[in-house]
Here is the input.
Amino acid sequence: MKRLFTSITLASLAAGVYAQNVVFHNNIQDIDGNQESLWIATSTGAVRLNISDNQKDFYYSAQGLSGNNLYAVACDDEKVYFGSSKEGLSVYSNGSISVQNDLFKEGYNKNIYGLKCFGKNKLAVGGLLNIYTMENGVDQKYHSELSDLSSFVAYYDFAADNNGNIWFCGWDLLKKSSFGYITKDKELVCIPGIYQSNSLAIDNEGCVWIGSERGLYKYDGKELTRYTSNDLGTPSDAVFGLCKTIDGRLLFGSKNNLAIFDGKKVVEQINVPTDNSKDFVTTIFPGEDAIWVGTALSGLFKYQDGEMTKIDLTDKNAPEISLGEQPMIGQESTNEQTNVDSILSNMKFKFQLPTAIPIEKADQAPSSPIFDLSGKKTSQVEKGKIYIQNRKKFMIK
Here is the structure.
């Protein structure tokens, strides 16, 4: 057994650290569901919340999940899909969960950052460098030529338009493009101009809206328009959890605020009473009678009838769980602020990308094509400078 805590800091609570078999599930990364129940993906497992009575069921790797650090969740009428940071895909069906990493014949590297269901038996999976789709048992793999330049392109979110296109967004390390769509004819189209996006939604006019750390973007089919905090009146440029309500309005998180946007202006901002100044809204699920808001450090909130209420997701009878490299688990905190920073840096939206790629030293340049760090193709290399080839960094000694 792991050594139990004698005390629990705020950072420990934020991460969902357990003591005496208690898990708090405060680090929320995705929410999906229907009018009866929510499925919540956290860095410490999954939670199913019955909306009518707040009854909760908890799921961990001990119950069949591929891993406990979950980045994404998506539901259809029969199944619930979970994506983990390193262990791949697991599926809840008929009351049980099983790992299903063989679902795609093409295979993938088990890093799943985004999931979306489009009706029964139609699924989009955002992976590392690739996008995967599954429809009626037929799988397809998509790979952007632009991602050949980068060691890290992660796809976070998807939305379908009325023309049969599946739109996607994500994060590109080399700042080329991680926004575009897959046509109904299975062709991938990239649209340059956005490279650090995390969520998207399509409004009733067919325009695509994208949430990013640089602001809110609108794509009308021809050009991109960027809205910053100066335009929106929000506390930060960063936009997370963008989604569309039943009545067609857009919702998004800006720091610890829930913003309601009518397509022209923010008509209302509601404060989410988080526990830490570094906390922020990560994901939003618009229900029929309430709006559900997930945060990075303070857990789940419910906005209904003008009131924002925290929903307790504590599991007091949790099994001993393993979270791999997730910070804080099974370790006593000595520096609360450092641990909060570590928790945030391990979320899917907060990668320390540039330091994640080792630099290989070589006596001479490898065969072309070679790119500089801006993504420009080059045939000339200089000693001491860093270049990219085959998604790897190298430097001539």
Notes: The longest strand covers residues 153-160.
